[in-house]
Amino acid sequence: MRNSDKLFNAAQRKAYPRYEKTVQGFVIRMFHVKVYRKMSNDAFNMIMQIIKEMLPADGHETIPGSIYDATKLLRDLGLGYVPIHACVNDCALFWKENKNLENCPTCNEPRYKLDNEIAPDMTWHKDKRVDDGNLRHLADGQKWKDFNVQFSHFASNPRNVRLGMPTNGFNPFGNTSQSYSMWPVFMVPYNLPPWKCMKEPFCLMFLLVPSPSAIGRNIDIYLRPLIDELKELCAPNEVFQQGTTTEVPPIVIEDPIVTSLQRNDIEPAIEKFQIHEDEDEFTELVDDVINEKATTVYTEWKHEMGKHYRLTNENYEKTKDAHDHRYHHPYKGVNQDGWKYMVDHVFGDEMWKRRSLAGQNNRTLVPYNHTLGSRSILAATIIEADKSEDKRLPDSCATFKSSHTLCLDLCHHFHFPYQTTPKNRTEGSKESTMAASSSSSSVPVDVITAPYGSWKSPITADLVSGSDNRLEGFALDSLNRLIWLESRPSEFGRSVLVREAEKPGDEPTDITPSGFSVRSTAQEYGGGAFSVSGTTVVFSNFEDQRLYKQSLISPDSTPVPLTPDYGGPIVRYADGVFDLHLNRYLSVREDYQGNAAHPTTEIVSIDLDGEIIREPKVLRSGNDFYAFPRLDPKGERLAWIEWSHPNMHWDKAELWVGYISETGDVHKRVCIAGADPAQVESPTEPKWSPKGELYFITDRRMGFWNIYKWIEEKSEVHPVYSLDAEFTRPLWVFGISSFDFFFSNEQTNVLACCFRKKGRSYLGVIDEVQSSMSTVDIPFTYLTNIISGNRFLYTEGASATHPMSLAKVAIGDQISQPVDFQIIWSCSSDIEKYGSYFSSPELIEFPTDMPEKNAYAYYYPPCNPHYQASQEEKPPLLLESHGGPTDEAHGILNLTIQYWTSRGWAFVEVNYGGSTGYGREYRERLLGYWGVMDVNDCCACAEYLVEDGKVDSERLCITGCSAGGYTTLASLAFMDTFKAGASLFGIADLKSLKEGMHKFESHYIDNLLGCEEALFEGSPINFIDKFSCPIILFQGLDDQVVNPEQARKIYSALKRKGLPVALVEYEGESHGFRKAENIKFTLEQQMLFFARTVGHFTVADKITPIRIDNFD
Question: For a disulfide at 910, which of 149, 421, 797, 857, Cβ 3.0-4.6 Å?
Fold first, then answer.
């Protein structure tokens, strides 16, 4: 039916027989209400659905039920718009007779004018770039410099434009079984500095090509409009730059750099081609570039190629001589044989017979060069060249995919052989031919079709359990060398202090001697277990919880105890700082001597003399909890945080400052924040600037944790910078450091900070005087702690491609763009070779049961380059509910998640209502609704993924640890969404949990649930009859948070009911598994349990199954 017919019918058809208005009129009126009342799309959809439900049956089919259907109905009206330029002085319109004018006919003001701030940056690569040997921009690369030497006439004018033109296809729905493809085509001006050229305003999307399937090599057809515009751009013309007129400069098309330019170990893939009207000059240019450059393409292949094509030591040494080895990475170029193989075996001859981009007239883009003996894969260059057939470059190269991206895609899908050939070996040499023909990998590996969940993966449980070290704090010594605390599963969870290597290339050294483990158990969750000052470290030892002092000068110095021996770990210390003025150490102390169930928490001072061990002196006591004792630079004032039951710290807390007397006591206290009963806030992280000014974080007024400053002389608190973002996180552990002082003088303080907004973290630098913040461009999307050194920042973070790591960030004059970014430590080393198996998370926002309230999650689709499932099958889903419950999923590279996705599972982490990272209002959704809000949101997320066609509704599984284990059990007991579950030290009996809860969380449940009736109604153990699917439980026998009896009770009850159930108990494990063998066993048995009970597939791994009661 024609569009006009559709519109006519809609304009004539009544909404329903007894209603006078037409469908079209009704929809237009609804859109009027939507715009006038600023109605959201979700609200519009809900109202339309209600109207449809209220209508008689004969009106159901006529009224659209969503904004999508309503928009589709009116789309054919053609209510578009035509942009008309106007003079900047409002003199005239550039319309009709003035349409083609370049200047205003009245005032002669130019129609177009470049931004005066941007225009000078077009010569940044020449005028302002610092050439210090570090790779921060394409102009720092050797190939850029070689090009400038070889084509000096072009390089003599720095305004000559150099463009990157990247494109690639992707499935926006993230589901390979759903046929859809989207191809955006961008242009990036590389003349600009790095902090601009890669930013959104300068990444210009010229085309967007949607298609039911991947257009692949046919993209040359769709690029025709862009080609025509570029040709027009290259025609003689005039542009305005800072008020002057000049001829349009030539253009160079470059391969885009899609990797991080801060990495010093990457040589970018750059091939340059000049657009020029002189065919002979252009042909000479291409010949020279091909002969010298195209044989080797340098890229960051560590993720995609490292696992297949790592060089042997022998070949690696050879490549040192063959190539520029400035950056010392082990993955070098593709030789001529590699290219020839790719052309012959991957593309095939038919690919080269396609028509040219210019159309049916056989005019081609670039001349073809025969010197390599194979058709080189090069970036497209826009030029009309020789028409002869024998000099034609295949048009598929006009996809504007860089050789970088093209190679990565080919390696990912086809696995062509990658070999490195020294320069002095010619293409036709015998050795080269033999090497290519005898390679065992010379035959492309076919993708195997196998059921989801049955795929074989190199990401083994051994790899997951053995590589996942944990970072538990870091600090700087007197030489600005980094010291960090890492927990090692391979050493049964022992925590060791490690010092950064003195020289590049050296190995870090352990500080903590054998027999010691640096870990505090204060408030059960610990943290803040050590502190460094100068050449001394004070730490808490795990076994006895005593404080010890150790010298950092001698690597084998013996720690000296500072606190008394109480015969066991009944007195615990955390979150300490040095008081060098009085030679003492100030710390939070948790004392179990008087009452084991409710220990006393205090701030105490400990003598650092060490010759005589004395009982610590109490400085502050009387409240339920203390944290962050922080001393000012002169040792005259002490700031601290305190709070009391029934609040958790993030519910309500107070910030105090006390003045230090000559005897070291605290007197004359003043409450800085949190005392006003009319204003609920939770201040945290007090810090003194080098000038002695107090800064801290609180969530007053805005409901987001922001940074504030105390004006002592006025007794006022002022915001430093306000943003709807979280600049800290809940105080589950001691020792949090979310901001530090990067620079300080008499006029100002410049603060470095990390903050989280809408599921992503940022590194920021705040200038207090200007009240401005610049974000620093680093590859992390999740950040936790930060400290400042001498023009350096150290931060802990991760991303979808980086596991939890500790990075050193060098900041120059341009704050937003770091001079250097270096990974110092990573929880999972040497995992780059598994990069092609990594599933990237997709942040999803889904509707919940609360009207107009959405929740968030990170969805990971199955990912394995060697496997695919049939198009009819959808993957099983494992949903993880995070712990806390006041915690957050982070959407970062986690080998545990990749263990599942690389075997064909879909995985999703849910940030249900009550999670952190989204402000107080979102966090407090859970108050009074634990076991309801989290359960409903988890079920809603799973159902959303089912409705979106991403996962199999009959194979939905759920897992969680601690409070996440409670959500797991509650979901299985009170809802029927999931078909199986795994609880890791999860909570089954809320009343039992409350009775045995340690002091820190003893009233937590009161806020989350409330009355005794809610404790009973919310406990899965009381509703065994509601369970209806298989469950496996894992429990540590030394758990002081969740009594092991809870797991035993639910196991026995489910066993009696006849449901498939299994229980695994671990000796020596507490609340959270730390031993590598237990982490491995838990992971393997979870997967095998799900596969056997609901998966309907056989796992590829050889795992000995445990007995499943009522199943085996």
Answer: 857
